[in-house]
Structures are given as structure tokens and as C-alpha cells.
Automatic annotation (TrEMBL):
Pfam families the record matches: DUF3792
Claim: Transmembrane is one of the keywords in the record: yes
Key words, A-Z: Membrane, Transmembrane, Transmembrane helix
Membrane spanning residue stretches: 21-44, 56-74, 81-101, 113-133
Natural source organism: Candidatus Stercoripulliclostridium merdipullorum
Name the record gives this protein: TIGR04086 family membrane protein
Amino acid sequence: MKIKSLTKSNGVKWNKNTLTDILRSALIAVIFSLIGVLILALVVKLTGIDSSVILPINQVLKILSILFGCLIGIKTKEKGALKGAISGLIYTLISVFVFLILNGKLGADSFSYVDFVAGLAAGAISGIIAVNFGKNRRA
């Protein structure tokens, strides 16, 4: 069964599988990130880790979330960098809004452009890894 192309821009065909892969990987990354933040909060509460250590751990958690989301969410072996980069951006947007809701306030420190660039880069690299090294991929 051939899936009809939704749009075509600059030689890139966007079909249902492409959009599904992107959204699936972004949502898996958000879920993984939420679980990771809960575990991190529990560890901080129990051990009293210094707050200066939390930010680097949080950045690593975001990158691992995007990688995990791409490895599980991307099912087709094509456009890995593009799918991953868009997934990373969507993950970053969703996570900013989710954590804004959990914090209950909107401030200048709520998000940073570095997060968006890191999400884009981590997503592109993760998408390449997922397409080339992931198991059970469709051509």
C-alpha cells in the first residue's frame, strides 16, 4: 500500500509515515523526560545534591530524552536528520510549555534559545543514529 504524499517542498516528500515518526518520537521524548525529571527530583530530595549540579544533569536528561524518543519513534529508514531535528524542536516546545504549566509562571528564565539550538542539534544527531543504527526499521 503506497501512502500518498501530503506536500512536497525542496525535494522532500512529506507523507503520513514521516509526520507520524516525528510526532511519535517527540512525544516519547517528552514522556521519558517527565519520568527522568521525577526521578531526578526524588534523588535531589533524598540526597540533597547541590543545585549547581542539577542544570548539567537536566541538559543531559534532555539530550538522552531526544535520543531515546528518536530511537523508539522513528520507524522508517529515511530523512533521519530532518525527522530528528524537527522532533527535537517539537520536544523543546512541548517541554517548555509542560514545565511552564508545572511551574505555574511565565518568566524570562522559562526558556532559552540555547535549549532550542541544543534540541535541534540533539534531534538531528539522534535521528541519524536512529535511522542508521536502530533495529526494526522499514526502508
